[in-house]
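Submission checklist for the structure archive. All mandatory fields must be present; incomplete records are returned to the submitter.

[x] Identifier: TetR/AcrR family transcriptional regulator
[x] Organism: Croceitalea marina
[x] Residue count: 193
[x] Sequence attached
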Amino acid sequence: MQKTNIKQHIVNVASKLFYTQGYNATGINEIIAKSEIAKATLYHHFKSKEDICIAYLEQRHKIFLGALKEFTDKANKGRPQLICIFDYLRNSYREGEFHGCWAIKTLSELPPQNQKILTVIQRQKKELLLFLGEVVGDNIANISIAETEKISGGIYLLYESAITETHLHKNDWPIHLAKSLAPSLFAEAQLVN
């Protein structure tokens, strides 16, 4: 395996472990064993478990945001694009292996002093919020910055609660409820067709 492939292989193995069983429950030795590499190989590519976790978070976020953007671009303008994040979430849930939000799940396992991972997660959540702001701006005519922030923030909060509650209840009713509530955020807005 080439050097970059080994690094990616480690991230892929760790990603599955972190997402399915949790950050704290996954040890370095398990990552090494499942990756079928030597300890020295792992430490050649990553200084710590924390660094592997950051690579995991970055990979998951990049894949998620890219897929969400592609999904959104395929939706019709107006209301469909404004609420399609919930359809995307429903599809993710139905594909199986759904364990909630990887970022929040990881954050919940960390001590408060772990600023390095916290900063990564905060940046990723801000990127999602900014993307939702772009979707709102593209689909509602003559909208102020304050209204854009209010609507995109509302959609963001509905999404975040839907993903958490869907994982908690092992059922997609929170997604459907969030999707049904979202249009009330822009009920009086002039939608783009």
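[x] Structure attached
Curator remark: The chain is about 75% helix and 0% strand. Residues 49-74 form the longest helix (26 residues).
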